Each structure stands twice: as structure tokens, then as C-alpha cells.
Amino acid sequence: MRSRAGLVLIYERETLFQSYGGSLRPLGDFSTLVSSLQFHGVEELMIIVTGDKKKNFQLLANDLKNTYVDIPIVISGLQGDILNYLSINKSVERFAFSSSALEGDSQLVDRVILDCGRQAALALLPIKYDKESLIYQDLSGKDIRITEEDISLFFHKYDEVIFQYLSQTGLQAGFDYGILRFIPQKFLSRSIFSGGIVQSDVKRLFSLGVAAVYGENSIMHGEGFYEF
Amino acid sequence: MTSIEIINLGIGNVDSVGCWLESNGYQVVLIQSPEDSDTQRPLVIPGVCSTLELAKRIIQSDLKKVIAEKYHLDIKIMGICAGFQVMGSHTSEDGGGACLNICSFHNDRLRRLESSYNRVGWESLHLNLKSKSLRHIVSPNYILRGNAFYNQRYGVKGDENTILKYDDDFSAIHLSKSFLGLQFHPEKSGALSKTFARYFDEK
Fold this sequence. Notes:
With 228 residues, chain A is an alpha/beta fold.
């Protein structure tokens, strides 16, 4: 099974945004975006829903009913809300959990695993790192150290884990390979990396046998960002 | 316009499959009970769900008899991923349990030697459909090429009805009567998606 090339987008009020240089840049509506995905070689889409979750999940569900997307979609931003899950669950293939993954709020995660199978549940870890360990950055800005045991538990519970290096997100800075020393080799084939990915990183990370890389910036600035 | 039924029991990517069929010119009818179904209409059983949970809901909703009747009448049925696996006798997923027992295969954890593994991602699909048994699906000499998207932990072991299988002996494409079981997701397989939608056009 070869590595996959994905794209991270943010959804709010019927508009898709990409992280760009520390801010969000609007890319347009769903149908506009979908028509351009093929040119860029995007193989899966992770959509992070922000803002008024109830309203935006409903809007996204409507968009997905009206616009056919021929690649798998991963959804993030549910934050344990069962109604938001129920509004979107028939239109997507996988679910990425961030705060729920770390804070043990697993009721919705368990529901997703029961309904959709374990392969549908992913952990999304916004991280940075120092000399000692990876550090999870929660929404309030609080730092939580991630031990090797934590990493094993994530891979036990979730099918794949997305490591999103926040300080590089939206920049064309290149991927920071220092993250890799905290992730055991045996888990690389189930790891997805995101944050500052540029074209040379795609090839290098693929050669390491990672599950996927997710771009969030350069991808929309030229055709064929992902070349195989 | 051809109408196609999709089983809609609150799990699975029903709307993704519906969108795929509509974008290929079909009319979609979602069915939740036998009263919603027309015996002569083709049917899709979607995946992205636990096979055991899907089997329970199909049995509880009485849709098993709808599927069985269509199967015996040779009405086209497409089972996608769990929707393929559920047609077998049983599954070992979620502690194990009975499935619909319409086909004779069963569903097991993907395993190579002593190790279990998952198949998530894209794999090339090269398949020359010249064989006689396939002529009622697509035209003779038709060749499938492209990348197919998989998202599976469990699978069906290849048997005499397997059209394409992997080196681990698990089945990618299965055909018995007019039931086409696809382990990958045709609705999420990029350029290949259009090809598989044509299954419902061919005589």
C-alpha cells in the first residue's frame, strides 16, 4: 500500500479556507474547489469545521449532498457532539478526533467505531516538540507532554494518527523531521504528517513509508504538487 | 433514467454513494424497509461501517428478504466494502456474529502469516475482463485500469467467485449471479468511479 497525498482545508459558512502564512485564505465554495482537486493530484481531503459548529456542520452536510467528491473525506472538529456527527456521518468516510483523543472523552469515538468500524477513527494531534518529547497543544494553548506510552495508546485505539506540526502550518517552511524521532518506526505506516509540507517533503516522507502526508499551503499554488 | 436503491439504515456513507450515482445519471431511492423497495430495481449496499452492525440492522429492518429476493431473481446488487462482506455467512469483526448468509463466504481479519494489518489507501487495479463469466457485467475486452481506494481491516477470502484477489488471498472483486462485491470504494476511487457506475448500464 503506497503513501497517500492529502489536503487540509478549513470549512466555515459555506466557504473553504486554507491556512496561509499564519492566516486563513478563502478558496471558494465546495463545487469550485472540487473541480480543481484532480489537477493537484489530491487523494484525500481533511476538512476541519470551525466557527458555529452546529450551523457549519449542517451547511457542510448540504454541500456534500449536492457536490460529488470522488476521493475520501476525513472530518475533524466534532468535539464530542453527537448531533453534529449525525448530520455529517453519511457523507464522509473517516473522522479525526483531536481533544477527544487526548482528554479521554471517548463516547463519540466509541460510537464512530461501532457505527463505522475502527478504520474510520483517526487521532489528530496538533503538536510541537522539545528535546524531551512531543507536546500536544490544546485549544486553550495549554501544553501537554505526549509520552511514548501515550503514542502506543493512540495507535491502539485509532486506525491512524495525524501529527499536525502547528508552528509550520500554513508556511512553506518545509517539514520538521525532528518530530520523527519520537514516533516508533513500527507506527510510521499508520502515521500521517502535516505542517509546512513542501514538494520535496512529499517524496522524502513517502520513501519512509508513512501512511500519508497532508499539505495545506503550497498545494493550491501550482499544478501537480503531488507527483508520484 | 434508471433508478437504483440504496440501503439507508443510519450507518455507512449513504449520501456519498447517492451523490456518486446521481452524478452518473441515475436516480437514487433510499430504502429503509421492504415497503420502500421495488423487486426489479438494482440495489447498492454501502460500506464505511461495521459489518456486524450492518448485518444486525438489515435483519432487524426486514431488508434481508429484499436482498435475498433480488439476489435469486438475478437483479443487480452492488455491495461495497462492508456491504460486500455482509452478504456472507458470518464475520469475526466486533467479537463475531452472523451475517446475511446469502453467499457462502465469510469475513475475517486481514492477516498475513501471523500478523494482522489494515489496507487503507490506494492500489492499482489492472483487470482484463475477457472471461466469459464477466460478459454480463461489462463488454468483452473491457479493461479496467486505475487506482482504487481501500479502507478495510477485515476481508473476504478468495473463492471460485473471486474475479480479482491479492497476494494475501483476500478478494477485491467478487461476482456471484448478479451480485458484484467490491472490497474497495468505487464511489471514492477518482477516475475509476465512473467506470464502476457503468455496471448498472450494462445488460
